[in-house]
Write a structure and sequence with these properties.
Elements (H helix, E strand, L loop, with lengths): L5 E6 L3 H12 L4 E4 L11 E2 L7 E2 L10 H9 L4 E3 L5 E5 L7 E4 L8 E3 L4 H8 L7 E2 L4 E7 L2 E6 L3 E9 L3 H7 L1 E3 L4 H8 L9 E7 L13 E3 L6 E4 L8 E7 L8 H16 L8 E6 L34 E3 L12 H23 L2
Parallel strand pairs: 1-2, 1-12, 2-9, 6-15, 10-13, 12-19
Antiparallel strand pairs: 3-4, 5-8, 6-7, 10-11, 11-12, 14-17, 14-18, 15-16, 16-17
Length: 361
Amino acid sequence: MDKRNMKVIIIGAGLTGLTLAYRLKQSNISFKIIEARNRIGGRINTLYNEGRAPLEMGATWLGQQHKHLLQLLKELNLAIFDQKLGRTAIYEPISTSPHQLVHLPPSQQPSYRIINGTHTILSTIAQQIEPKDVILNQTVQKISKLNNKASVITDKGEFYGDKVVSTLPPHLLSKTIEITPTLPHQVTDVMRSTHTWMGESIKVALTYKEKFWDGNDISGTIFSNVGPIPEMYDHSDYAENHFALKGFLNGNYYGISKKERLNIILQQLQKYYGSIVQAYQSYHEQVWRNEKYTHIDYDQYIVPHQHNGHTLYQKAYWNGQLYIGGTETSRQHGGYMDGAVHSANMIAENIITQLNSTTKP
């Protein structure tokens, strides 16, 4: 199909972009997804290595309250399993006292992971849309309104469609893509002060041949006020054949080298487990602040989830030709995978309704 005849151009091949494409495909509405990275997924990034547990360097967990994501998983026939926390956790309240093993409350809401990794959502959707409709390695530079069409200019070409949907973090969109005509200043002000989910996170993971943290007097769940790891969890695979620990590193460590980060992580873990932590198979990390297609520095201090789900994201602009989507824009669970799916569903519903109304006699 000629690229000038697209109904919808989707910017970003993350969870929102792919879910939106999936919904449009179900309604036989033509689209193109334009993605700057050389992979689909955005802030979902599952690492697969033979003989190792799948490692989530991005979005990982969901809960019973995430109804939109759970419905999508049901449609795609994808299963989930409990995130193992155990009955106890290693807790380090202050630097001047030793860590302790504490009992976890039994009433806390369970968290879940997706069997075979979060990326299975993306790969399953990708199997149901045409490869030619997902364009990788093209960075969008400008979006323009051209009467009843919209133009999307990348570093390699130009695309036209009836509607354009950005699924980028709103702050990133506002700072990196020229929008003509400009949006109302109230909208651009909100975009520039909207927190980007995952933007300051550092995810770290270590794989091991044995699960040495599994026992009555030890735990794979870590909570520390001292750090540099504030949280870490058992990240073994569903079958319990391959073992890993995964958690967050304090975001302030983004400026040091990977080797330095590994060393301070091992030093902390050695306090809890002893020298066995040095026998890791592999170490992996994702410093999201250094991902230019996710994070860009703010002009001012932004609190977590600031402006996520803002009212101004709930409508289209340019007389219904431009939508601003993504997890940060969702009024339900903004900043989570469920928010990404909800955003896609809402935009798809609006677009399908509009396009169907214009084709009726």
